[in-house]
Amino acid sequence: MTKKLANTRAKPKSAVCRIRNPKPAADPVFPPVMQKVQEVLPKGKAVAELVFLTGQPLSTCQKMLSDNRMPNPAMIAALCQSKLVIETVLALTEGGTDPAVREVHKAVKRIQLERELAKLDAGDRA
Question: Most buried of 29, 47, 75, 82, CB within 10 angstroms?
Fold first, then answer.
């Protein structure tokens, strides 16, 4: 081997380089809000339905549903102003330790159960 080739071998990164450029986290956690939203939306048209309900750009909705982007405040606000408000609030308040958060979670859960019961009653009458 010539001297030029011997010097071009890869050297380990210095500590300074590793501090500035840390390795990315293994896998970002899929936000519980988007999990709940994805469960409620129709399977084949989830992105189109989310775009229609929230008014957010198509690319933003695609990235959020595919776990490439965390929901931004505009998306959370849009979800809270759509028919997905119950699922959004339940996901945001789940696991809260503050008494006020737990109260809100219980109240919204009660509303959700009442709506489901009303749907079942309407289905039995038909």
Answer: 75
